[in-house]
Amino acid sequence: MLYLIAGPYLFRRWGVVVATACLIAYIGHVSTLSTCNDFQQSLFASWTVADWLAVSFIFAGSTAALDYWDAIMNTYPYLSSDKLEDHVRMQDPMKIHYWIHLTKTIMNLSSEAELDPEPIEDLKAAIRSLGHNGRSWKTMSILFPSNLRQEMCVLYAWFRVCDDIVDDMDPKIYGTFALDLVRKFLNEVFHGKKSKPVSRQATTKFGKAAFGDPSVPNVVDWNYYAQYLNETQLATLRGFSRLAPILCPKAAFALTDAWKIDIHRQAMKSQDDLLNYAGLISGRFAELCTCVIMYKSGRGNWSGVDPVARKDDVLKRARATGQCLQLINIARDLIADSLEGRCYVPLQYMPSRRTYKTLKDSRDPSRIGESTLKSYAMQILKLADCLTGQAQVGIDGLPYEVRDGVRAAFEIYSAISPAIRNAQGFPKRAKVPKRRQQMIAFSCIYGFHPGLGRVLQAALYKLLMLNKLSGHKKLADIALPSK
Fold it and tell me: Which carries the bigger pLDDT value, residue 234 or residue 38?
């Protein structure tokens, strides 16, 4: 049965399956030998090593087969149903709908050869496009459930690709065209007139269009975009188009307003302008991430179509989380942005407009001095600190299975802040060492995240102040408040 259901996959993963089976068999056999005197009547007492290996292989192979078909169902959801509401129901494995659609997927697909390889190739291209700049994201995504991980990587890759398309263009000649290109794509994806998808090459023996991949909108003129974008960029756009039915169009279009600010190199006159920009660029992206998270965790379609599922307070806190991280990113990249002709430091921080021209037009941050640059960064980081509390509350409001991954991403990025504060002078681009990222991710798995440490430190400080005011000499003499 295992061979019929997932034979090719088990052969490809034979090393992991065999190692897992052997480990289970060894533990079971040794534990039985150590307790056989106490449990002479136990069935396991008569088992040989071969018996343990056989049963262990069935368990290891079954879990591998389940992972295999779960991945197929999430990558090719149309194999079990063409309806979006059914795709929502199949996301939660604790409900019967998940197992019904998993069974339909197995029955409707007779061979891997019938699968369209394009979704998998597009996913690979999206992950490759992240490159070195996606280290923090890749570390964080490891903590996500597997069915969410690939969608989040595709979404972030699309965001990075569009950002690079706009930023890399000459703003005076091609910048506006690049932005129009992105807006045209979003209009076609979200508002294009859809027609019935047509199978391209093959169907299964049950008559299902398995090779046609109707998940890619047929309203997008891919030949037009192929004239201006490379294959990797096209792959990320195709991946985004598959996610479009579960995303909020308003949030996606708001990103283009932020990219418009980047194209025209608009100055941030005040802190409010900076906060507004951070809210547009990363705040709205965080809202898109929340839509994907809620959909993949079985909480419904948060694209705006289902007003019952969509919760504005959760989205508001998600935007605050993205806003906070963007401010940290801006504080870190003051020198890098200046060398590329950008400056996000509010004019109200500067003594004169000449400083702004030095950073943006002259592209010579060394003339400003490290101490001045660091003072600008410190003021921006203070703005980020004001949003940290709201961001932590927002993370706590997410589904339990994704909190660790989101908190890891937040804490890894937040670790840039002390790196800037504790640095001698002002570094060109402060980085969190990979080992430090891994330690933060590991601590988030078990709940000992840095945010918890800051909360406990603040509580201890308040208790010490209460101790001092009440005249007690011992902290133990003070009753802890119930809250």
Answer: 234
Determine contact, residues 153/141, Cβ cutoff 8 Å. yes
**Cα dihedral sign, 344-350-352-358:** negative
C-alpha–C-alpha distance, residues 198 and 212, integer Å: 7
Instruction: Kindly report the length of the chain.
Output: 483
3-state secondary structure of 83: coil
Q: Following DSSP, what letter does each residue of 111-146 receive, concatenated?
A: -GGGS-SHHHHHHHHHHHHHGGGGHHHHHHHTTS-H
Q: How confident is the model at residue 460 (pLDDT cuts 50, 70, 90)?
A: low
- With CA atoms as reference, report the closest residue to 384 among 319, 324, 317: 324
| Residue 342 backbone dihedrals phi, psi, to 5 degrees | -125, 150
- DSSP secondary structure, 41-82, as one string: T-GGGG--HHHHHHHHHHHHHHHHHHHHHHHHHHH-GGGT-S
**Four-way CATH pick for 118-192+231-447: 3.30.930.10, 1.10.600.10, 3.65.10.10, 1.20.1090.10:** 1.10.600.10
CB atoms within 10 A of CB 143: 20
- Cα angle 211, 216, 222 (rounded to 5 degrees) comes to 110
For the chain, the distance separating the N- and C-terminal CA atoms, rounded to the nearest angstrom, is 55
Q: Is 232 exposed, middle or buried (0-12, 13-18, 19+ CB in 10 A)?
A: middle
Show the tokens assigned to 397: 């409001």
Residue 133 has pLDDT above 80, yes or no: no
Residue owning tokens 């330690």: 439
Flag whether the pTM goes above 0.85.
Answer: no
Q: Give me the residue spans of the domains in the chain.
A: 2-114, 118-192+231-447, 449-483
Q: State the DSSP code for 361.
A: T
Euclidean distance between CA atoms 304 and 249, whole angstroms: 8
Residue 267, φ and ψ in degrees, nearest 5: -75, 145
What b-and-e string marks burial along 85-117, b requiring 16 or more CB atoms within 10 Å of the CB?
A: ebbbbbbeeeeebbeebbebbbebbeeeebbbe
- Integer Cα distance of 88 and 94 in angstroms: 13
- Tokens coding 31: 């534990």
